[in-house]
Each structure stands twice: as C-alpha cells, then as structure tokens.
Amino acid sequence: MKLKPLSDRVILKMLEAEETTKGGIILTSAAKEKPEIAEVVAVGPGGMVDGKEVVMTVKVGDKVVTSKYSGTQVKLDGEELTIVRQGDILAIVE
Questions:
Q1: What is the residue-wise DSSP string for the chain?
Q2: What is the pLDDT along the chain (94 residues), one digit of tens a residue?
C-alpha cells in the first residue's frame, strides 16, 4: 500500500533518536527524546488551501525539522509515518 498526500500535506519518516550522548553514554529507549528531524517521503501537489495559493517548497529526500507534537501518526506496512501540513515544517536541514 502507498500513501499519496493531498493539497499541502507532507509525509515524513522520523529519523531514529541518538543512542548515545556526545559523552558516550548509552541511552535506554525510555531516555531517548522524540526525534524532531525527519525525512520527507512524499509531498502533496500544493494548490489552493483555505483560499490561498500554496507552493510546495520541500521535496522528497529533504531532511526537515518539525514541531514536536505536530502531525498525525500512521502505521503502514509496519512503518511509522507522520503526515503534516507544510506549515508545520520549521526548517530544512542542509
């Protein structure tokens, strides 16, 4: 099965949280923070959203930073994905 985002929606795959700290301490799964950096898996076509023209600025493969609690989580073929509006993306990581 495949997801195709509509209008200004973007599908993200969250990247794994760090397993060790910069000092080399190994973290348990409970101590890991929720990742806020994700990879763009699919991008909607943009167009008219709430009466305004939306041009999509992210593309598949971009790494982005999102709001901590934004989006809707879905599980598809055993893979956890997040669907967000392009406006919920704070920055592109270069």
A1: ------TTEEEEEEPPPPSB-TT-PBPPTTTSPPP-EEEEEEE---EEETTEEE-----TT-EEEE-TT-SEEEEETTEEEEEEEGGGEEEEE-
A2: 789 999 999 999 988 755 555 666 665 554 445 557 899 999 999 988 888 899 999 999 999 999 888 899 999 989 999 999 999 999 999 8
